[in-house]
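Quick question: what would this complex look like in 3D?
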Amino acid sequence: MSNNNSAIKVTALSKSFGKNKILDNLNFTVPINAIAGFLGPNGAGKTTTLRMMLGLLPAPKDKIELLGYSLPRYRTNALEKIGAVVENPSFIDTMTAFENLRWFGSLYKPVEDRRIYEVIEMVGLKEATYQKFGTFSSGMKQRLGVAFGLLHKPELLILDEPTSGMDPAGRVQMRDILLDIHKNEKASIFLSSHLLDEVQKLCNYVVIINKGQMVTEGYVEDILASNEERYEIRVEDDVKERTKGVLEVLPNLVKSVNFSPRGFIVDIEKNSSALINEVLVKAGIMVQALIPLESSLEETFIKLTEKNANIISSKINNPN
Amino acid sequence: MKRIMNLILFELKKILNNKKAFLFLLVLNITPIITSLILLVVYISFRGFGFGDIQFAGVKKTIQYMFTGHFTLFSYIAPFFLALIVGDSFSTEFGKGYMKMLLVTPVKRWQVITAKTLSIITFLVIAVALGGIILQSDLLIAKAITQPSGFLPGSLQSKAMDSSIAMVTASSASQLLVITFIANLMLIGFFIMFSMFFESAILMSFCSLSAIMAVHVFYWSSDIIKALFDDIAKTLVANFEFLSQFCFTRHFTNLLSVDIIQDILDGKLNIMSDKIYNPLGQCLLWSLVFYVIATIIFSRKQILH
């Protein structure tokens, strides 16, 4: 066991199924107390990585550390402090939510009934405490999975697609539950998801992978920050063409110009909005509004994964 | 230790929740006892017609055959039933995702397979005990007929007290139950090993029972091939002989053949006889081998669902 302060540390992790390479020298570190999102397109290797972390797939020696415990040697020690919420959790159909949590919970340290009621209430299943799992909707099953993950007050909660099968209201509720857990139970959270807007609202740290390789990792605000800013410039329809002409002669300030229903969407150099506004006004163009647009994780994600895919394909085409 | 005990209890609870399994077990056992009762009623109804000797001999033989039949039926149907129980405990759990839930808890894989195996064995003990209780009911019926309580004509009462015409003793019945338990233990091991490769209990049962039949057909055919080709192909025969040693199914059929059951019921053989003791030891050895192989496969298995 090492003494570092990372919740998760993955070093040079590779995995193949037959000739198909799923993970290729993957490296990332999730700091303690982060809410980290694990992102990647379909087939990127997210679920494989999570399964190796949780011991569902054999983990190579000393490539994964969870809370400082190296796998596979200290797997059980690590899992005692980790809550795992797998995709589509399956409990025993003929048992109630309470019975399921009590039986599955007994495989950890002894759990008091009080704690079982507490986590059931925390995930909003109080009414279904004595309802059989077989009668649960997919959203309720997912919530019970989260309750199971929380049962023994984990230091790290690992979730695979936690909002899968949930309606929009359920997703918002799940986000609130996870934020509460992070705040009140002081748990680090690591979750994989396809829903980038949700990750952006929930996570403060992201790890992005593509085709089994690392694309980027870091705090969300750092990843979204760049040397460019995006603005919407609103002008009257009759000056649109003239405005476009003015913007296009400012290549050092304006990186791209695209029409929008009420003007243009422009990518500009950082801190140059006032200067551009001044140039337009001096050219006799009445600027109705200059609206800053927030960078989205979705755009950054697409940009980064496309860039990464190009690098990988160029490496394949030109190995030298 | 507490964790593995909890796991065993958990697994046992899951098996005992399977109401269909108990219903099947009950039907399998209840049929012979109903037959016994019908026989008893028929005997009492007709005993006044003066054919006491004939009736007694007939009923005695019928009950003995019924006991043998019941036991043989139980022994041969039990594997189908056990295959489904093992399949439910392993293959279904792989398919439905319960196994995934178990393996993300801090239990070791060998603990999971051991707990599941022990809970299935406990279920087998319950099944055999239930079978035993019902078989003992057969004995009680037999005794009821031979007791000097008015059922039996007076001329036959002295014969009934004679041990040489005792229908089935409690000792031979208990020995048969122990033999059934150990023979089925070997099959449980085989089914567990097989269930590692399937995600459906029905498919696993079908394939594993087919494999058992294939192994046994090979065992039979090795005898035939030996008889046919002994002179012309000595190497072939030697290879067949070598491989037939690994046909574990022969121990099952050796132990539970009608002749052996009849000899035990007649008191000619007991559990310490070589003819019983050796195959029992082989069954235990094969059980251990299957369990070790299954544990190795399970510890390396990739859980993808």
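Answer marked as accepted. The longest helix of chain B spans residues 52-89.
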